[in-house]
Design goal:
Blueprint (H helix, E strand, L loop, with lengths): L2 H15 L2 H16 L11 H19 L4 H9 L12 H12 L3 H9 L5
Length: 119
């Protein structure tokens, strides 16, 4: 059960019990959830490492979508540049990381639209 569902259940119970203090407390928690500023997740120590990681995720997802081997896709788009290590996790996880980072990073959003990735 996530935070929103838990608050809904608590709200219904407090409403049925006509507990004003609990209702006010739940209201404040809900406002806090909505007003919370989303911070970007820290996934790399510095800019260069972050760019290498994003390029690895882009290549991982794009090579899977185009049904090409990882290194073949990399060579086709980046030539003789050193390819980043292929992620060991599955493609859906890379896709999920890209979807999340598109919200916080212009580089990621630009690369996803450039290579027409479905995230």
């Amino acid at each position: 059960m996530n935070e929103v569902e838990r608050l809904e259940v608590e709200f219904k119970e407090a409403l049925n019990a006509r507990d004003r203090a609990t209702l006010l407390d739940i209201h404040l928690k809900a406002i806090g959830l909505v007003a919370q500023h989303e911070k970007p997740p820290v996934i790399a120590a510095n800019k260069k490492a972050y760019e290498r990681l994003i390029h690895a995720y882009i290549c991982h997802v794009a090579s899977n979508d185009s049904r090409l081997p990882y290194r073949v896709w990399w060579r086709a788009y980046y030539g003789d540049k050193q390819p980043p290590k292929k992620p060991k996790h599955n493609v859906e996880r890379s896709r999920s990381h890209l979807r999340e980072m598109k919200k916080h990073s212009k580089l990621t959003a630009r690369l996803c639209s450039k290579y027409k990735l479905a995230t």
